[in-house]
Amino acid sequence: MQFGRSYEEFEVGAVYQHWPGKTVTEYDDHLFCLLTMNHHPLHLDTHYAAGSTQFGQNVVVGNYVYSLLLGMSVPDVSGKAIANLEIESLRHVAPTFHGDTIYGETTVLDKWESTSKDDRGVVHVETIGYKQDGTVVCIFRRKVMVPKENYLEARGGEQPGRPVPVPDRNWPGRD
């Protein structure tokens, strides 16, 4: 299974559909809010949300939706990244509610070689997140510094740092 891409593997216009989706639970939303100290009642107080908001129910905190999508994109986009350079834009365009399932996909907008180091490049991508009914809920663009093949080869290849299993009395090794 592929985990990220080298610079050479990205093509402008390519679309990566991230799989699987994630159904957002009330627990997920509340835990994220509590971990990040976002105690807004829109996210945590069902009574408040039902009677005092236009949605009539709790809305999943937007940074959780963004974080889910960013995480979903790692195997396809930034699993080999040297650095995430910039989040250029982040828009929440529709609400997500408890029980919604989020899916994501990323489009490669552009790419260019580094001007300071010849073993890497920058990839400019846009990720959209959408619910089970196709409603787009979040859109963000980012720039990611990714290695070229020669960078990976110089540092151990596809899975640098991966140990080799050592035969012993419990496992004789591969034959």
Automatic annotation (TrEMBL):
Region (Disordered): 154-175
Source superkingdom: Bacteria
Range of residues in the leader sequence: none
Gene Ontology molecular function terms on file: lyase activity
InterPro entries with a match to the protein in the record: HotDog_dom_sf, MC_hydratase, MCH/BMMD
Name of the protein in its database record: L-erythro-3-methylmalyl-CoA dehydratase
